[in-house]
Automatic annotation (TrEMBL):
Protein name as it appears in the record: Ead/Ea22-like family protein
Domain of life per record: Bacteria
Length: 197
């Protein structure tokens, strides 16, 4: 940044003769308004006097104030944009962390050993004792067999196939928590899966 004192420059422009300034072909710069109207407010001599007169007339107080206003506007705009970028950078960081976590979870799910084969449904059952798992296993297995789909079960320790011989009595004793984790069932014409397209 330059060493220009913008506040001092603004005060000088506000206190100078207002209005249009123009240069003549003889002595210098004439003010068109204010107390100095029709008086020379700057005189120039030397080989560059015409160029200097034109510059002084163009750099009148109104022009300087307009430039200072524009500079102030763009400085405040730069501050707003910088703040916006800084605010969004934390949002982007949080989104990037979520993306990394999601990609890691996808990799874990894809790497697991228990994957349903084509035509099977992987179901996770929790909140049961062995007979409770058997009960819900039997209920779901019967429902899936009714539509011709085999079911693989996992209890968190090891994968196993369960039948539900005692499911009628056990189901009344336990509140099942069942979550279908993955479905790999090819669609047959006329059969729709609830929640599917």
């Amino acid at each position: 940044m330059s060493n220009i004192n913008y506040q001092a420059l603004r005060m000088a422009a506000e206190n100078a003769t207002p209005g249009e300034w123009c240069s003549d072909n003889y002595y210098g710069v004439i003010a068109d308004a204010g107390l100095n109207a029709n008086y020379y407010i700057a005189s120039c001599s030397g080989p560059d006097n015409r160029a200097n007169k034109r510059f002084i007339a163009a750099a009148n107080p109104a022009a300087v104030l307009a430039l200072l206003d524009e500079l102030e506007y763009y400085k405040s705009r730069e501050e707003r944009v910088t703040k916006l970028v800084m605010d969004n950078s934390t949002s982007w960081d949080a989104l990037y962390k979520k993306l990394e976590a999601a990609e890691k979870r996808i990799a874990e799910l894809e790497a697991r050993e228990t994957k349903p084969a084509k035509g099977e449904v992987l179901v996770v059952v929790s909140g049961f004792t062995g007979c409770g798992k058997s009960a819900i296993a039997g209920e779901i297995e019967i429902a899936m067999k009714a539509i011709g789909v085999p079911v693989k079960w996992t209890n968190g320790d090891a994968e196993k196939r369960m039948t539900g011989a005692d499911w009628l009595t056990a189901i009344e004793m336990y509140k099942p928590t069942v979550r279908i984790v993955e479905v790999n069932v090819p669609r047959v014409a006329g059969i729709r899966i609830k929640g599917g397209e």
